[in-house]
Amino acid sequence: MSYTVPEPKIFACTQSMELGERIAMAYGAKLGNVIISRYSDGEFQPSYEESIRGARIFVIGSTHPGPENLMEMLLMLDAAKRASARHITAVMPYFGWARQDRKDKPRVPIAGKLVAKMLEAAGATRIITMDLHADQIQGFFEKPVDHLFASTLFLPYLKKMNLENLTIASPDMGGSKRAYAYSKALQSDVVICYKQRAKANVIEHMELIGEVEDKNVVMVDDMVDTAGTLTRAADLMMERGARSVRAITTHGLLSGNALERIEKSKLEQLIVTDSIPVKTGSKKIEVLSCADLFADVMHRVHHNTSIASKFIL
């Protein structure tokens, strides 16, 4: 007697509705129906408008600021658990609060660990995410974590550009491992930016380790927030004789006056994914969709097949 695995049900949080629709389309399914009821004081309540009893469900939602995005994901997971879903996978293209992955001074939280525990307590039985701020955050979970790399999107894009005298750069010391991995795949040189911060989002000093003269430089990073680091690094590299400077960053937070900084800088192009909704307003920004990547991994997870090929770098 043959047994057919029932197809999963896919839902999206409000903040990731557009990406959720693209992922569902790439998967070959329709996005499930969820209604969000809101109270006048700001409290809200999600409701699945179809049965999910005994089903595998995927809940798509990035947890970028503000806090409502994380809260909605937690409520969606809790509702699914209480509706007797069999497997509940939190699909989080951008895992927020991950910059707080350790105590960097006394009397501060480790928010990344706290968020991991809240997701598990809410009902997540698996996490699928992309380019965590620090790889070790996977260890904050007791449930399986599929940590995907946006290099599966960026490397083919860079190879098609066929840039001469290509050099890969890291905008800070923390990203040197990622830069070396890209340089190995592209057989290019590497340079590293060394920066000292006066406080969060404020750079006091930056220095360049390596030569960029007559090079087409591509900086790689996991996220761009205020764009202060990227734009300052781009300007410094152009002063040192680089032909051009581009940047590829997985998560385009682009907060504050980031767009203005990018426009005024010598950065030629910024390439990001649609892990979170990208602010428009700059012709320098190119967006690559991660929908096909997540749809493929979700299909493999559901059918219990290997996803090893998705772990480039």
Describe the structure in your own words.
The chain has 8 helices and 14 strands. It has 313 residues and is an alpha/beta fold. The protein folds into 2 domains: 9-148 and 291-310, Rossmann fold (3-Layer(aba) Sandwich), CATH 3.40.50; 151-288, Rossmann fold, CATH 3.40.50. The chain has a 7-stranded mixed beta sheet with strand order 10-9-8-11-12-13-14, with helices on both faces. Strands 1-4-5-6-7 form a 5-stranded parallel beta sheet, sandwiched between helices. Helix 1 (17-27) crosses helix 8 and helix 2 (67-82) runs parallel beside helix 3 (111-122). The mean pLDDT is 93.
Summarize the structure.
The protein has eight helices and 14 strands.
Number of helices: 8
The gyration radius over C-alpha positions equals 20 Å
* Strand arrangement across the biggest beta sheet: 10-9-8-11-12-13-14
Query: Strand pairing plus helix content: what structural class?
Result: alpha/beta
Give the number of domains.
Answer: 2
Biggest β-sheet: count, sense, barrel? 7 strands, mixed
- The CATH class of the largest domain, by name, is Alpha Beta
The strand count comes to 14
Proper CATH architecture of the largest domain: 3-Layer(aba) Sandwich
| Beta-strand percent range | 25-35%
Shape call: globular
CATH structural fold name of the largest domain: Rossmann fold
Mean pLDDT value: 93
Question: What letter string, H or E per element, gives the SSE order?
Answer: EHEEEHEHEEHEHEEEHEHEEH
Low-confidence stretches: none
- What is the helical fraction, as a range of percent? 25-40%
Report the span from N to C terminus: 42 Å
